[in-house]
Amino acid sequence: MTTTPDTATLPLTPGRWVVDTNHSSIGFTIRHLGVSKVRGRFTRFDADVVIGETLDTTSVRATIDVASIDNANADRDAHVLSPDIIDVVRRPTMVFRSTSVRGAGMEYQVEGDLTIGDVTRPIVLAVELGGIESFPGGPRHAGFEAATEIRRKDFGIDVALPPGVNVVALGDVVKVEIDLQLLEPST
């Protein structure tokens, strides 16, 4: 299969845009016992966003510190990070590396590889450009929303339950929602 270059562009100045962590977040939801959702977020993350002259030369690399998980319940956070579930010692980071960016206007798809621990799987982020605004005395800001779903078991993350317990404690699908505000590079 032959691919043709994507010469479309983003309505952003080419260069390395910096994440405004004060106005960005990475959240998730997962089913608990199949009857409700548990919501959480990661408080430490970074992204290297390079806007190219075209979509083919645009790239994203993001790293999440798994230990920064926050489910608004310290006991639950400790359990999620334990070897029973994520095992933060084996999986200290999640890393996303884009492989392609496609789209136009306000909607894009960012394909890439997500690595959790020693397992890498392809994922697709549905991305919406929320807008671009000037900030008095500072750089322009660009806002993006992104969403995807991953499956825990695809990354070898299972839930250890006591013998004889036959209940689905956590759902397999994790819905991820990302809000990023980026700062335009200085010229």
In short:
The chain is built from one helix and eleven strands. With 187 residues, it is mainly β.
Second-tier CATH architecture: Beta Barrel
- What ranges have pLDDT less than 50 throughout 5 or more consecutive residues? none
- In CATH terms, the superfamily is Lipid/polyisoprenoid-binding, YceI-like
Domain module tally? 1
Measured distance between first and last alpha carbons: 39 Å
User: What sequence of helices (H) and strands (E) makes up the elements?
Assistant: EEEEEEHEEEEE
Largest sheet: 8 strands, antiparallel, barrel
The CATH topology is Lipocalin
> What Rg is obtained from the alpha carbons, in whole angstroms?
18 Å
Determine and state the CATH class. Mainly Beta
Q: What is the beta-strand fraction?
A: over 45%
Helix/strand structural class: mainly beta
Count the DSSP helices.
1
Which sequence of strands runs across the widest sheet?
A: 1-4-5-7-8-9-10-11
Q: How confident overall, as mean pLDDT? A: 89
Number of strands: 11
Shape: elongated
Task: Name the helicity range.
Answer: under 10%
